[in-house]
Amino acid sequence: MKYFSLEYISIITGFLLVVIGIWGILTQKNIIKMIIGFTIFDTGLHVIMVSIAYVRGKTAPILDDAVGIKDVADKIVDPVPQALVLTAIVIGLGVTANVSLCN
Amino acid sequence: MLKNSFILAILIAFSLIFVSLFISYEGNDELSNLGKYYAENGVQEVGAQNLVTSIVVTYRGIDTLGEVVILFLTAAIIGFFLKLSKKDSKNGKRVEKLREASEILKTGSQALVPLIFMFGMYIFINGHLTPGGGFQGGAVIATGFVLMMIANPVQKVKHGVLAFVESISGFSFVVIGILGIVLAGGFLDNHILKLGTFGEILSAGAIPIIYSFIGLKVGAELSGIVGSFNEIQAEK
Amino acid sequence: MEYILIAIVLAIVMLIMAVMAIHNKKLEVAIIAAGVVSLFASVLYLLLAAPDVAMTEAAIGSGLSTVIFFYVLNKIRKNNA
Fold it and tell me: Is A1 among the domain residues?
């Protein structure tokens, strides 16, 4: 069964979180509920990006004793989207704080 | 009725986009070319165990500089709002007395807050060896600050000290970046110090120093943001 | 295989909490549910081999965001009362 694996499950979860977030932004009237919808939208996008970076059966991009420094490219997942998501989460907090100040 | 059908149409359109993206997704069995380059050359070029750290600090250092600037702008805007609402509250409005915290929370926070601060510093000093780094360590320090503020809500936040730490560490971050242009290959190059032995705490050139400054700056900024929110909600 | 079962449980809890955060009338329940979505997302990042992202999400998404939302909620209640 192709869809019964870690990356497919997490990518579907991310898509559904994005749809739920848009639904909240469009239908709610209270402004705090709208901002909560934005944060759920954010979380869904981050889950999608991290699960696109996942490589089947590989480990985290940290070259400690268990991984070693030879043939690293065959043992780790993609580190670039993880670095981008790291940036995006911190900026998301700043935007949330500023937007929620505006009422 | 019209509005509801409009919302439903937007949701269905998004779902269609996602379904078409999902059908074309195959999953990965190997790294992309960019990731392969970083994995193969990161050890010789940067010398950090944690590849995410070497990407965030060195390969994409200018992204990190922009992120730090965005956080600084957020903290500045919130401090500006705090000053405006203080000016309002001088004529007539009074600060409401907050409820005291319980004895257990006060005593527990006295024992826990130093440990949380020390854990945050451990995270950002070891950022090039283990998972973690400046942003994570700064966020952990800010959660310790939240605990301190919940246990003792009436105390004044010393915004002067926080602003001093923040501006000193931000200035040092930029100075180290410019030193990289002068002494080594480019902005935020970590070769201004020797790379050292792979896997030790004083290795990877200037990465521990840069990440420590980022951690102090992020911790001071997030603590300042939470402290400003605490003062804003205390006013009436 | 155990990872897949854990991921399924995490996904179901996250989706239920997200619907609850949008649909519940009480604002406190909505804020806590949004925090729980972030917390379970950080466990999912750990399963997806991204420990750095997991640490950031656990400290910022479910810690600081929730506290800031509660401060804003307190301020709005006081202004309306």
Answer: no
Query: What ipTM was estimated for this complex?
Result: 0.87
Contacts of B159 (CB under 8 A, 6+ apart): B79, B224, B227, B228
Q: What DSSP character marks residue B158? A: -
Residues of C in contact with A58 (CB under 8 A): 49
- Measured CA to CA, the distance from residue B126 to residue B105 in angstroms comes to 30
Pick from B70, B199, B223: nearest CA to B137: B223
Most A CBs within 10 A among B5, B18, B40, B69, hence the mutation to make, goes to: B18
Where exactly are the structural domains of chain C?
2-80
Annotated domain spans of chain B? 49-87+98-234
Structural domains counted in chain A: 1
| CATH number for the domain harbouring residue A43 | 1.10.287
Residue C5 structure tokens: 């079962």
C-alpha to C-alpha distance for A17 and B166, rounded to whole angstroms: 35
Q: What is the pLDDT of residues A13-66, one digit of tens each?
A: 989 899 899 888 888 888 888 899 999 999 999 999 888 888 887 888 888 777
Angle at C13 between CA C10 and CA C16, to 5 degrees: 150
Residue B11: its chain A contacts at CB < 8 A? 19, 22-23, 26
For residue B13, give every residue at least 6 positions away whose Cβ sits within 8 Å of its Cβ, in sequence order, or none: none
